[in-house]
Amino acid sequence: MKTVVLAGGLGTRLRQAVRDVPKPMADIGGTPFLALLLENLRAYGADSFILCVSHLRHVIQEYFGDSFRGVPVRYSVEETPLGTGGAVKQALEQFGLDEALVVNGDTFVQARYDRFWADCAGEPLAVLLKAVDDAERYGSVETRGGRIVAFREKSEAGAGLVNAGAYRVRADLFRDMPHRFSLEKDLLEPRVAELCPRFFLAEDYFIDIGVPESYARACRELPARVRGNMMKTVSELRECAPLLSPVPEEKTAALFLDRDGVINVDKNYVHRIEDCEFVEGIFELCRKAKTMGYKLIVVTNQAGIAKGYYTEQEYATLMEYMAEEFQKQGCPLDDVFYCPFHKDGLGEYRKDSEDRKPNPGMILKAASKHGVDLESSVLIGDKASDIEAGRRAGVGTLIRTILG
After folding, report:
1. Residue 270, by phi and psi: left (phi above 0), alpha (psi -120 to 50) or beta?
2. Band of residue 263 on the pLDDT scale cut at 50, 70, 90
């Protein structure tokens, strides 16, 4: 999912609160807002970032360089301001993209971007919307039958749907547009009747930092989400230990662990003891978790069973060996849940399953069986599907590893 981020705005309304940096680099609890935005997008499948930069662009370029958390970062530089539409048009042309996800660099929306992308495939334009209690500042959006039919002025107060500042676009949409123009005012709104864009509803957190009041609110709210249900990314397992909090005496919490890529080095469908290589630091981390009161619960997809690469018995033999090693290391596993099903599997294993991540089934079953308080729990995985399963289950802290 190629993702274009509009990060070239002047941010004139924030000058008193944010100085010497571009608006998307505004500090949020010690982290640039743009870094939180990219991490959120990365969690939902963004595999390439193109940052449209202009004002104080060196600040952004020096911070992110050519990659962010393993995702390539490239830059489309506006020598003179092009407007939101002109910036997108230039980025698509510069990098030869036929389509892209486009997001505003001053707006944070937790949404299923991967599903938005898939559901709106083939559309020349699709828009992410959010229901808010007061649409006065943004202007409301009128919909009918899954399509946007009108935009209302910002002077209209009251609850409504608003444009959340994220779009799926096709490059041919921009073919006859000028070099400099506004995506919203010069394309989307005037041509809404012609385009009748499809929309996708974001049902989670939404905030933009365009004015001092909302920036102050972001400073209050986003750090808590980062500490809680906002995903963290670590490159070494020892970085996870400081993210664990002692479990309150009155609660039962779990450290949920994916297997391949977290417990053992992922060598593609590991199923033999001789191929099992434990990730450096896993036992140290788990001993620490045990002393802090966490149960250790493994939740692992095992599509190799469904695809006939190995049997459930071979999986069980390896898992028994791994459990013995955890016991020897002073951090015994409390339980293991696995899913042998896959929609492209063979025979009885060919099916979708609520247990297969990104579905939350295994986590929810473990929580029910062990009386686990999910809000107090932690999940560590190495794939977006692990993190999404944790989100859907309501796990309080989500950590994605980029080991290697």
Report:
1. beta
2. very high
Residue 356 pLDDT > 90 = yes
Please, are residues 196 and 148 in contact by the beta-carbon 8 Å criterion? yes
Share of the chain above pLDDT 70, in %: 92
Mean pLDDT of the chain: 87
DSSP 359: S
**Measured between alpha carbons, how far apart are the two ends of the chain, in Å?**
23
Has domain 2-227 been given CATH number 3.40.50.11810? Answer: no
Q: Three-state DSSP class for 26?
A: coil
Instruction: Go through 167-176 and write b for each residue having 16 or more CB atoms within 10 A of its CB, e for each that does not.
Output: bbbbbebbee
Q: What is the pTM assigned to this prediction?
A: 0.57
Instruction: For residue range 306-327, list pLDDT tens digits in order.
Output: 999 999 999 999 999 999 999 9
**Which two tokens mark 178?**
């000028």
CA distances to 262, 320, 321, 352, 399 from 237, in Å: 8, 23, 21, 31, 10
Sequence spans of domains, the chain: 2-227, 232-401
Among the options 114, 260, 382, 386, which is catalytic? 260
Burial of 330 (0-12, 13-18, 19+ CB in 10 A): exposed
Spot the catalytic one: 106, 114, 208, 258.
258
266 classed as catalytic: no
Calculate the alpha carbon distances from 73 to 35, 52, 66, 399 in Å: 12, 11, 5, 22
CATH number of the structural domain 232-401: 3.40.50.1000
Query: Which amino acid is located at 50 in the chain?
Result: I
Active site includes 260? Answer: yes
Residue 269: Cβ-neighbour burial (10 angstroms; 0-12, 13-18, 19+): middle
